Amino acid sequence: MTNLQADSRIPVTVLTGFLGAGKTTLLNHVLTANHGEKIAVIVNEFGEVGIDNQLVVGADEEIFEMNNGCICCTVRGDLIRILAQLMEAKLGKGKRKADFDRVLIETTGLADPAPVAQTFFVDPEIAENFQLDAIVTVVDAKHADQHLDEGHEAQEQVAFADILLLNKTDLVSEAELQKLEKRLHTMNSAAKLYRTQQSQIDIKQILGIGAFDLDKKLEIDPGFLEEEDHDHDDDVTSVFFRELRPLDLNKVEQFLNEWLIDHGVDTFRYKGVLNIKGVKKRVVFQGIHMLFSSYPDRDWKSNEVPSSEFVVIGRNLDEEWFRKRFAECVAS
Ligand SMILES: Nc1nc2c(ncn2[C@@H]2O[C@H](COP(=O)(O)OP(=O)(O)OP(=O)(O)O)[C@@H](O)[C@H]2O)c(=O)[nH]1
């Protein structure tokens, strides 16, 4: 392709950020914003069953899920396969038809973005059809210091960002924000940083910006285009529960509070959609370390069986204890 030809490849935005930073909130903001673009979404979650796909606003037919493993470890497989399927769907060749102008990939909070980005350069078919537009990393202002101190996934996500959204600015002071901004700038001075609440950002600042610069990434990581194994924090595991019988919300909160007293630091993320006795709507439950909340969201759809699905992600999770206590939350 010469410089004179317009690039007709489909732009791809990769959303990263540690567990609970605000990626799904950003995705929902993008999907509901009035930009006139059709967006295909690929959601990858940590854990065997996805909760996020239930929390993404009314765009069922556009969501492609990847729950068979971490996106950064399965790039050679699942991501390439899904992108190829998307291309077929766009060209009307596959079983599924899809009309879209761009692709948004929400990675798990534990994903290293580098191997995801790599896919768009090293796989010829993907490189021919898709163009990496930007890596957008959402940072949780409240918990970022802890996550950056502890694990290399959070560090990689910041280091590889083209855009940094310093989110949840409502939860910390101006002084803390400035300190964190300094830290982020030291780690990645090339990224543009925006402060946000509820991941509210002008869509024009994150989509169609052509911010991904391969040369700059090669400066950070000279081995970027070479396949390499990467390590994960193997201590992090997840426990998933499902229950058809209605639950008692007080009991759920009580057992989580008990757990969090001693394990709040290690409990990165817990979230779910719950079927609560006496509540007609489904209840969405969101937790990050010691902070949690829940709210009635929408009526169950006619094709949904009201049930509770809940996932906990963290270190040193006592699966047996969780299963026992969760079972005790069934309403009497
Ligand atoms: N106080 C506050 N809460 C926020 C803000 N942005 C998002 N949240 C909340 O943080 C929680 C996690 O947000 P998500 O968008 O689900 O985060 P995520 O990065 O997609 O989480 P995972 O996919 O589990 O890694 C939700 O309860 C959001 O409502 C913010 O700016 N301020």
TrEMBL record:
Keywords: Chaperone, Hydrolase, Nucleotide-binding. It comes from the Bacteria. This is Cobalamin biosynthesis protein CobW. Belongs to the SIMIBI class G3E GTPase family. ZNG1 subfamily. The keyword Chaperone applies. One of its GO terms (cellular component) is cytoplasm. It comes from Paenibacillus montaniterrae. The keyword Membrane does not apply. Gene3D superfamilies: CobW-like, C-terminal domain, P-loop containing nucleotide triphosphate hydrolases. Residues 236-330 form the CobW C-terminal domain. It catalyses: GTP + H2O = GDP + phosphate + H(+). Residues 11-193 form the CobW/HypB/UreG nucleotide-binding domain. Signal peptide: none annotated. One of its GO terms (molecular function) is hydrolase activity.
